[in-house]
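[audit] Reproducing an earlier prediction to check determinism. Same input, same settings, fresh worker. If the tokens differ from the archived copy the diff job will pick it up downstream; this log only records the rerun itself.
[audit] input (194 residues):
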Amino acid sequence: MVIFEIDTRQAKKVFEEIQKLMKVSKTWKLTSSIEITVLDGKIQLVGQGFVKEMPALTTGSCKLVVRALYWFDLVDMTQDKIFKVVVTDGEAMVRTVTVPVQTTFFETDRILRSIPLPANPESIDYWKLEYQGYTLDELQFNNVATKIPKAKKEFEACIRKAALILHPFRISNTELREIVLKKLREREKIDFEV
């Protein structure tokens, strides 16, 4: 069990900013989630296109993923000066209201890093994650592990389509793949391999 407390007024302000960002980037949906990492003396809120930090009183470290709508409702309806959250396995409780969350508690000092992504990530953004030193646990917890192989498959499909179109100019799949990979490696500063 981990407990964190934040100033309600500040929480409302930060959540309103997040809501505006999500609406502008068109990521505001019923299924939208926010990742909350509870650290020593602060919490970090991460979603597509944003990373926000807030000072907090904490009793431990954990990470939870919760539907954005749940949190906005809880923060919005809180009348207390301090917004207190009790996190247990699979649940987060504010006063007497409990919401389901995906949780990870840290028994060691090793914290799973948040994975910041653009507001509207492209396949290349997911593929780059493979080269940024994230562990499989981090990728799975952030629900992006399956998106990396999909990005690679999409790359191959695009190469095949482009090679078909360029066939009258005698450009093969292999040549086109190497040209595009070379360009991606230069632009992204990552040694992509397929």
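[audit] rerun output stored. Observation attached for the diff report: The longest strand covers residues 33-39.
[audit] end
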